[in-house]
Amino acid sequence: MSTPLDTAPGYRPRHTLPLRVEAVRQLKRRRTLVMGAVLAALPFVLIIAFAIGGGPDGNGTGRITLMDTATASAANFAATCLFVSAGFLLVIPVALFCGDTVASEAGWSSLRYLLAAPVPRARLLWSKLTVALAFSAASMVLLPLVALAAGTVAYGWGPLRLPTGGSLPAGDSLPRLGLAVAFIFVSQLVTAGLAFWLSTRTDAALGAVGGAVGLTIVGNVLDAVTALGSWRDFLPAHWQFAWADALQPQLEWGGMAKGAAISVTYALVLFALAFRGFARKDIVS
Questions:
Q1: How many CA atoms lie within 13 A of 155 on its CB side?
Q2: Residue 161 pairs with which residues in a beta bridge?
Q3: Residue 190 to residue 204: CA distance in whole angstroms
Q4: Closest by Cα among 92, 176, 177, 102 to 135
């Protein structure tokens, strides 16, 4: 008589599909290397652009913006890189890593073999989601780190010059930039949730990634519709640049707290839908 799988000697559901194995698989994939190269190249592209254009010259209105202070120091340059990439470029790796998780396995017809290995469905999703979020966070850390290193060589190490006036000492600017990066990651959890949920609903990884990016863009468009009034406060896109409050003389938490609460709420709902739907999904057909 056969022994039930969940009581078989030596079988431990929590030991299937270790995070290390999944992380190595994802790290070796070409799209991971390409995405890392693109993010690492952005600071150098901006340095070249400023060198050719002679540096930022202001916007002609007399109002100083973050872009106008880009070449003031390495900290300013890192903040500028975050500013130009947070709205769209940093959305792509999140959608890519989270949207390519389950859908790619289904597209390769390897999903059924993973579950027959056997890897419990919930365990498979947790492993893939954890690794996807870890790679997403790493991509957001990579950009400012490279920008700080490149900016130090190009513009020197110094205080963070604030567009509102004054400056932050170099030692204080690093924790503020770290807080900004952390908020950007939290604000992108909505995109992660969308991509992950779509990844469990389709066998086309490109569809999951593109769908998440497209819906994120729709959110940005809706936020630009001022006729929506206070309804925009419930859009994650409305708070995506609240991280700039971390770069003020006095740290402001209000906008970041509201934005984080909105993003986490949407993300938890989407993650729950992904787990619920995948638990009942027919992966044979």
A1: 27
A2: 167
A3: 20
A4: 92
